[in-house]
Write a structure and sequence with these properties.
By secondary structure, the chain is α+β, with helices and mostly antiparallel strands. It has one domain: YjbQ-like (Jelly Rolls), CATH 2.60.120. 27% of the residues lie in helices and 35% in strands. The strands form two sheets. It has a five-stranded antiparallel beta sheet, with helices on one face. A hairpin with a 2-residue loop joins strand 5 and strand 6. Bound molecules: zinc ion (ZN). Zinc ion binds next to helix 3.
């Protein structure tokens, strides 16, 4: 089962908790056991699972990434549209995560949340693709 929703971002870089949006899709699918694949079809965004209870983790994550992948480091691609760091960050964090669906809910840990990573915002339309793969179990 294929679903999509749109997220609007408001900063050049930010993490947006989309757990609620994904859980809503899982409910709508009516699948009780399976796998939920969450994917962003963008070359300057990503998807991670991380803690969201403390909002400072979002800032820490982005500043830690910035240390390894600074915004300007003489990248060749910057001559085209000045966003090489965003492409590299996107590739490093990855474009998808998979989460088990158990008893009709996302099987996330207590402190885990699904986050869209914006690395080249703000953008009015970040697509989030959800593919739900049902698994049938013998009774
Ligand atoms: Zn580019």
């Amino acid at each position: 089962m294929y679903f999509e929703f749109i997220i609007t971002t408001s900063s050049s870089e930010e993490l947006i908790d989309i757990t609620h949006n994904v859980e809503e899709v899982v409910q709508k699918s009516n699948i009780h056991n399976g796998v939920c694949l969450i994917y962003v079809p963008h070359a300057t965004a990503g998807i991670i699972i991380n803690e969201s209870a403390d909002p400072n983790i979002k800032r820490d994550f982005l500043s830690a990434l910035d240390k390894f992948i600074p915004r300007h480091a003489g990248y060749l691609h910057d001559r085209i549209d000045n966003n090489a760091h965003a492409h590299i960050k996107s590739a490093v964090v990855g474009s998808s995560v998979s989460i088990p669906i158990k008893d009709g809910h996302l099987g996330l840990g207590t402190w885990q949340a699904i986050m869209l990573c914006e690395f080249d915002g703000p953008r009015s339309r970040r697509r989030v693709v959800i593919q739900i793969i049902p698994i049938s179990e013998k009774p």
